[in-house]
Amino acid sequence: LTKYPSPSTLGIRSLPSHGWSPPQKVTPRPGSCGVRCRELHAGGERPTPSPAAAPERRPFSRVTPEDLAFFSKIIPDRTITDPDILEASNVDWLKSVSFSEVLLRPQTTEEVSQILGYCNSRNLAVSPQGGNTGLVGGSVPVYDEIILSTALMNNVLNFDSVSGQYRLTAPILCVCICVKVLADGRVLDCLATLRKDNTGYDLKQLFIGSEGTLGVITAVTILCPRKPKAINVGFLGRCMLGEILSAFEFLDRECMRPLNTHLKLANPITDCPFYVVIETSGSNPTHDEEKLHQFLEEAMTSSQVIDGTVATEAKIKALWSLRERVTEALTHDGFTYKYDISLPVERIYQLVTDMREHLGDRAKSVVGYGHVGDGNLHLNITSPTKDPDLLASIEPFVYEWTARFQGSISAEHCLGLKKRNYIYYSKASLAVALMGNIKTMLDPKGILNPYKTLPDDLQ
């Protein structure tokens, strides 16, 4: 294989060109929260690379024809080197670009075990990949790592009709009870069906949120409750969270503009500062409708709701589209800076208003939407084009603000490459150091998804 290309512009990140000196180390200072902000951006005699920029390539081996022959023997017809097929796996949802020349598509735990055991012995770096929908550069390689796709691991192994548990191979990187393949190829089987098991450490929890840096999940057991007999969906202009809800999503007025303008989705109710999509689920349609209408009547009488509509079966999908297609609508606004923040519920929207005040007219739009029930805010900031000056105004302000109110800088989308050096805003130095110890123990050569999750001072 040819040597990986010298990168210049890589979507959301910038890789150092050959001969460029490595980024300065980020050294946590003593204290409960580690590095906060200024140390991450401290200058010197030369400009300091962004904390989101990739570090220099580590001394991993490069793939040889002999390596390809080995992989082809294990997974015939699923060792991919065709650039046209590889292209989709080398680009993530936010158009972060990578240069892998090998895509492996195993179908079983045993195949993954053989692949990782071999890569570990050869010191070949591996980038595990599930749906490749990441927003932080965690699901695509940084340099020439081998892409290990779990896309073909999509088989239902069995279903227990009594407990409602499915056992299946996993095209995803983290979910409840599972089988993991470690960096050296050993298989850690935690695929129990017991709901309760308090014997020793719950090892599977280590792998949730680890972004494939500790192992590759190849099978899972998931609980599947029966489908509710009654589902009601409402779209409201402001409301209070009630006990009848099974879903409670919100979006602000600024989200409605791109939905209307770019996707031609009409606002079904009066113009309001905020909108919520609520869903109730139950087993008795008559009873659930009565509870929902009673709740809405009380909410509107007390002016907690300005306007609203309740969906019939045909309208449910249309109402959910107003929430679920916000991200798509914003892509038509230009370049989008996306932040996935977890905050105390009483603070969930304050970050949006403070960011608007902080940026003024430097941003085209600042919008907020997300999951109110668990305090998850999706803060999106758009500009006509990618704007380094705007980014410098957003970061580290957004992380400092989140840390000040005891939030998390990543509620759902992990840290990946882009946010790895910001981890100290959400985790104490000792916690991060322990994560580094765990990584070293489970993957001493660092072959699994290198350059991701952990900060550069631990790499």
Automatic annotation (TrEMBL):
Keywords: FAD, Flavoprotein, Oxidoreductase. Its EC number is 1.1.99.39. Its cofactor is FAD. Residues 1-59 are annotated as: Disordered. It catalyses: (R)-malate + A = oxaloacetate + AH2. InterPro entries: FAD-bd_oxidored_4_C, FAD-bd_PCMH, FAD-bd_PCMH-like_sf, FAD-bd_PCMH_sub1, FAD-linked_Oxase-like_C, FAD-oxidored/transferase_4, Oxid_FAD_bind_N, Vanillyl_alc_oxidase_C-sub2. GO terms for cellular component: mitochondrion. GO terms for molecular function: (R)-2-hydroxyglutarate dehydrogenase activity; FAD binding. It holds the Pfam family FAD_binding_4. It comes from the Eukaryota. Residues 94-170 form the FAD-binding PCMH-type domain. Residues 1-11 have a biased composition (Polar residues). Belongs to the FAD-binding oxidoreductase/transferase type 4 family. Catalyzes the oxidation of D-2-hydroxyglutarate (D-2-HG) to alpha-ketoglutarate. Also catalyzes the oxidation of other D-2-hydroxyacids, such as D-malate (D-MAL) and D-lactate (D-LAC). Exhibits high activities towards D-2-HG and D-MAL but a very weak activity towards D-LAC. This is D-2-hydroxyglutarate dehydrogenase, mitochondrial. It comes from Oncorhynchus mykiss (Rainbow trout).
